[in-house]
Design brief:
globular, tRNA threonylcarbamoyladenosine biosynthesis protein TsaE, 31% strand, alpha/beta, ATP-binding, Rossmann fold, transferase activity, transferase, ATP binding
Length: 159
């Protein structure tokens, strides 16, 4: 299943992230695909807003992984935000503990997931963001798993 949405601004991209955040629960993995400057971090910040993350969420470009505490329906959950742009080899995912984050008490947002394709769970959501600069963004939600199709059915317009 595939849903497409157009976002005219970074604020709209962030709102879409917040909307998706309301659909997420522990154990979920979201793969964020897009070029530099496409809006992956803005989208992740929206998810963080939905999780009531305190403090600023920034791209983990140099640290590779940032972890935040948030809440889903009153239950504490870890929001793990990864940026794997700097990885050179898939095996590096093991060294930094990517798979350790795939737990029931965590939601994982992974920027540049392509390099670790073989390590990703089969059941995941792919969010592909196209566009850069002042151009509108086309955001495509691709469900990998039956349950995702049901959960993202309403992700067709910006709130």
């Amino acid at each position: 299943m595939e849903n497409k949405v157009t976002s005219a601004t970074a604020e709209q991209t962030q709102k879409l992230g917040k909307q998706l955040g309301g659909c997420l629960r522990g154990g979920d993995v979201v793969a964020l695909i897009g070029d530099l400057g496409a809006g992956k971090t803005a989208f992740a910040q929206g998810v963080g807003e939905a999780f009531c993350v305190k403090g600023p969420m920034t791209s983990p470009t140099f640290t590779l992984i940032h972890e935040y505490l948030g809440q889903i329906e009153g239950t504490e959950v870890r929001l793990v935000h990864m940026d794997l742009y700097r990885l050179q080899h898939p095996e590096e995912a093991e060294v930094i503990g990517v798979e350790d984050a795939f737990q029931e008490n965590a939601v994982c947002l992974i920027e540049w997931p392509e390099i670790i394709e073989d390590y990703l769970p089969d059941d995941r959501l792919i969010v592909e963001i196209s566009g850069s600069g002042e151009q509108p963004r086309e955001i495509i939600f691709r469900a990998k798993g039956f349950e995702w199709e049901h959960r993202i059915k309403g992700m067709t317009e910006v709130i």
